[in-house]
Each structure stands twice: as C-alpha cells, then as structure tokens.
Amino acid sequence: MSNAPTAALVAAAIAATSVYVDSRSEAFGGEAAAHSGNPLQMAPLSALTETQARPLFSASRRPLAIVRTASPAPAPPPAAPVAPDPPEAPPFALAGTIVNATTGIALLKNPSTDAVRGLRVGEQDLGWRVRSVAARSIVVEKGAQSVTLAFPTPQHPSDGQTAAAVSPNEGKRDH
Predict the structure, then answer these.
(1) What is residue 35's predicted lDDT score, i.e. its pLDDT?
(2) Which domain holds residue 114?
(3) How far apart are alpha carbons 59 and 51 in whole angstroms?
(4) Which helix (H) or strand (E) holds 28?
C-alpha cells in the first residue's frame, strides 16, 4: 500500500521528464537528441552562444582575452668571423747555434742594429724565451705562442749536375 503512492510519484516524475526532454529535443535536432538522453548533443555550437560567452572553467565566467603579442624581432645576422691576428714574429733572426751535451746557445741577430746576442735555453730577450736549441733550429716562445726559427736547408744541385770542385793548383803549371 505504501508502495502505490511512491510508484505514482515516480511515474509522474518520469512523465514530466520525458515532456521536458521532448520539448528540448524538438528545438535542437528532433528525436535523436531525445533518445540519447542529452538534449544538447545535436545542438550546433553556433546555437550555444551563452556557453561561449560565459566559459564554465573560467573563474570570472568571462571569455578569455586574446592577447596578441608582436612577433619578436628577427635576430641580427651573425657577424662574419674575424680572422685572428697573425702570430707575432720574433724581432730577431737566427744567426747560429752552439750545441753540446750539456748546453745549447742560440745566437740571435737583431736586424735593426745588427747586434748578435747569445741566449741559453730558458733565457729571454724582448719577451721571447728560448725553449730549445738544436743543430739547425731553435724554438722560442712568448706567452702561448711558439715559433721555430731554422737555418735554410742547403741547396743540392738538381737534375744530376754536380758542383765543380776547384783545386787550389788548377791553372798553375809545374815548371
């Protein structure tokens, strides 16, 4: 008995809901929306202007402001690589070397004064330190720069010709 009024109430609620769904479904696409249970399923997005004007997940319920920023200025083209300065040449020329088992001495000629100065390994002149001395070359350094000064390579006659040796007695007659 107590179930009869409850059943009547449920039946009335179902009837009212179906009337509401039917009226909404006719406005947004007919019968398919009523059968799916979602009256907005068939509604075109252009018909939902309030939803677009008052976004659900925005705290203020106002449309998001579209901020347009100027595109960043293009980066300037990279500067052409600057060639490093040519290495500094020592201000002297190799005039000779003295090498034995215990020491090495470089004889350096200052081209502007023609003065010759001897420097042992480790000594320096005009900022250039003698690092090593060999029979035909030396290595000098200034800071991180290292330069090898060498005597020119002796020229040997080419294409099979030999140098004529002149005898001290040539051209003299024995009488």
Answers:
(1) 56
(2) 93-150
(3) 14
(4) none
Question: Could you read off the pLDDT of 110-165 as tens digits, one per residue?
Answer: 888 889 999 999 999 889 999 999 999 999 999 889 999 998 777 766 554 544 44
Alpha carbon 23 to its chain centroid, in Å, reads: 67
How far from the centroid of its chain's Cα atoms is residue 150's Cα?
A: 39
Task: Evaluate if residue 109 carries a pLDDT over 80.
Answer: yes
pLDDT at 96 over 50: yes
For residues 42 and 29, give the distance between their C-alpha atoms in angstroms, rounded to a whole number: 5
**Residue 97 falls inside a structural domain:** yes
**Cα 125 to the center of its chain, rounded Å:** 41
Q: Has residue 100 been placed in a domain? A: yes
Of 100, 141, 97, give the one whose Cα is nearest residue 119. 97
